Amino acid sequence: MIKVNAAAITICLLGALPMAASAQSSGAQSSEFGSREGERELSISGTGNSDRNLDSGSFGVTGDLGWYLTDQVVAGIRQSVNYASIEGESIKDDFWNGSSRAYVNYHFLADRARPFVGGSLGGIYGDGINDSSFAGLEAGLKYYVLPKTYFLGRVDYQFLFSSTSDASDAFQDSGIWAYTVGLGYNF
After folding, report:
1. pLDDT 10s digits, 112-147
2. Which of these, 32, 61, 80, 166, is most buried using a 10 Å CB contact count?
3. Overall pTM > 0.90
4. Domains of the chain: which residue ranges?
C-alpha cells in the first residue's frame, strides 16, 4: 500500500491557491466563468483515503450533485465507492465499501480559481468496516478551464462515530483523510 503524507498533500493544495487565484485567461473575463445562483453542478472524481496515522487506505470513485443556493454556496449529495486490498502477516483480503453524504461548501473569489471550504455529514458502510456515521471538514479548489467546466481538488478530514455521544471524541480518535481529484460541470 502506498503511504501518503497528508500534511504534504494539504500543504501542496494550500500552496497552489495563491498561484491559481491569480491565474487568468488572456481572452476571457473572469465573470463568464463559474456558477450562478440556481445552477447545479455534477462532478466525477477519483478518491483515496487513509487512516489518521497513514497506515492503511483505499482508492475509489466519487460523484457529486450540487445546487447553488447563492453564487458562492453550494449544497448537495455525494456518493463514493471504494476498494481496498489489505495484506499483512496473517491476512490478505479484498474489501468494498461506500459512503453517502450531504455537503455544503462556500466558494471564495469570483475568478477561474475558486478555493472553497465546507463540511459534510453522512454514513460509511461495506465490507471490513463498521457501519458508522461521520462528519467532515473539507477544503479544496475548483479551477475553471472552460466557462462551466472545472478541475477539482479536495482534501477532507472525516471523523467517524456510531452515536452522538461518540462524536465529541471521534475527531481526535477515529478520523480519516480523503483526497479527491476530478472534473466537474455547472449546468
Report:
1. 999 999 999 999 899 867 788 999 999 999 999 999
2. 80
3. no
4. 6-21+34-186
